Amino acid sequence: MKYGGLFSKSTVLLFGKELHLISIPKFEGTRAELSHSYFEENGWLQSGFIIDKCKPFGCFVGKAQFNKAIYSLFILAELYSDEFYFTMNSLPDMVLPTIQWIRYILGRDDLHLMRRQNIWNIYEYLSENIKDEFDKQYDDVLDSFCGDTIDYNKYLCVYMAEHEVIQTLEELCGDNSTYDLSKGLSLFNLIEINRKSINKYRASSTLDEDSQIHHLLEILTYDDEAKEKLKEDKNEQSFVFFQLIQAPITVKLISEMYNRNFWELWTQVKGRTTVNIEKEPQFEITTDNDTLCTDDFFDIYSDDRLYLWGECDDIVISFAAKAWLKELSAQFKDILNIEDYNTEIAQWQERLVEVIAKFQDKTYFFEDLFYEFLGSLHRPEYRAWIVLLEIQTDPIKYKRLVAVLANHKLRENVFETETE
Predict the structure, then answer these.
(1) Residue from 172, 173, 193, 176 nearest 242 by CA
(2) What is the phi/psi pair of residue 416, to 5°?
(3) How far apart are CA 126 and CA 130, in angstroms?
(4) Which residues, including other chains, have CB under 8 Å from residue 306's CB and lie 6 or more apart?
(5) Is the CA virtual torsion 366, 307, 400, 37 positive or negative?
(6) What is the 3-state composition of the chain as percent helix, strand, coil, each rounded to the nearest 5?
(7) Which end of the chain is less crowded, N or C, counting CB atoms within 10 A of the terminal residue's CB?
(8) Which helix (H) or strand (E) holds 44?
(9) What is the pTM of this model?
(10) Which pLDDT score is estimated for 414?
(11) Other beta carbons within 10 Å of 212
């Protein structure tokens, strides 16, 4: 979370000033609040992460740094959650760069969203768990999630679940001669054969409709031995064509012909179908192993991540920033030599609060650093750092100075001091 600039925010009141402080997210129980983007300096609606479920919560919009970081948590959950989990989003073009950044951070180039391979499993998950949250049909929702990665020939199961079978074929397949499923028969041909078989069965069967439907659905669950016997039954041998179409399409056809709810019928065979089609409906997922560094993913500079210097090997401080840090070191030494440090601690506390309040409309102070300062104001170097903060006029340089002070390793390197 901290690599993505995600922080929690707290508020303290001191010397009549309300200060907003940020900190690395801490888990309270199993939940951590993420309400601030360090890279954007924006506060957002409450978001967070539930560690025991490996799931984020909250909302995000757009492609700015906060949204990218939150979105990466959703993708991370999809990669590692034990239960079925699918990232709900409307930014399909963000999937690949997000995975590439996660690979970069974790040092793993073998991560892929394999759960996205079976589009039907995703569709089932949506229909069973969160359908009430959307007023759009699910084929449209999935389309918005996946963008151009959908191959509509593999999308038929999902689309037919929401539309009539023939309407689907006409809209998605066009000329029936262009869609060859297997054995030289088009999907139109196969569906028409199955339709005629079902009509013939309905006309000759002495069973009631519920029993007829049950029998037809059970054919989709037949093992190899039962399938062979089906071929030998003159009355039902035409049902072998059930095995040449993906099961959801056949169930949809049955639901239309008997005027029944598709999902109620599908529930009866879910997980038991034995239809074996060579090409299962899938997303076209990338098999690349590329990575994307943090600066490129968030469109920032390494100088904006000085609080992580020494912890992240990829932070390369620019020549301009190095020159500025050298200048800071010289100013710090001058301040130590000329500043009067006999002033009461309370006055230094108030000066610290004043300088934080002065800049907090542009950037927030680190909570740990704030309390470290309050407990160390008897030491000359901390008082000198307050002066150094006070003389800053550029909010960006002030922010970077705060980051340097919060990073003990970098602080010791720049100012040649030691942390107690």
Answers:
(1) 193
(2) 55, 45
(3) 5
(4) 315, 317, 321, 400, 403, 404, 407, 410
(5) negative
(6) 55, 10, 35
(7) C
(8) strand 42-50
(9) 0.70
(10) 95
(11) 17
> pLDDT digit string (tens) for 273-301?
876 544 444 444 455 678 999 999 999 99
Mean pLDDT of 367-394: 95
Q: What is the pLDDT of residues 252-274, one digit of tens each?
A: 899 999 999 888 999 898 888 87
Contact criterion met (CB below 8 Å) for 291 and 109: yes
At 34 the three-state DSSP class reads: strand
The length of the chain in residues reads: 420
Q: Is residue 158 classed as helix, strand or coil in its secondary structure?
A: helix
Dist. CA 382–CA 372, nearest whole Å: 9
For 186: left if phi > 0, alpha if psi spans -120 to 50, otherwise beta; the answer is beta
* Burial class of residue 198 in the structure, from the number of CB atoms within 10 Å of its CB (0-12 exposed, 13-18 middle, 19+ buried): buried
Q: Are 314 and 298 in contact (CB under 8 A)?
A: no
Hunting for tokens 């949809």 — which residue is that?
252
Contact present, 273 and 124 (Cβ < 8 Å): no
Contact 198, 254 (CB under 8 A): yes
Contact of 307 with 409, CB cutoff 8 Å: no
Contact between 193 and 238 under an 8 Å Cβ cutoff? The reply is: yes
What does the DSSP 8-state code read for residue 364?
P
| Extents of the domains making up the chain | 2-113, 119-269, 301-415
Closest CA to 256 of 187, 162, 324, 329: 162
CA distance 163 to 176: 18
Does the pLDDT at position 115 exceed 90? no
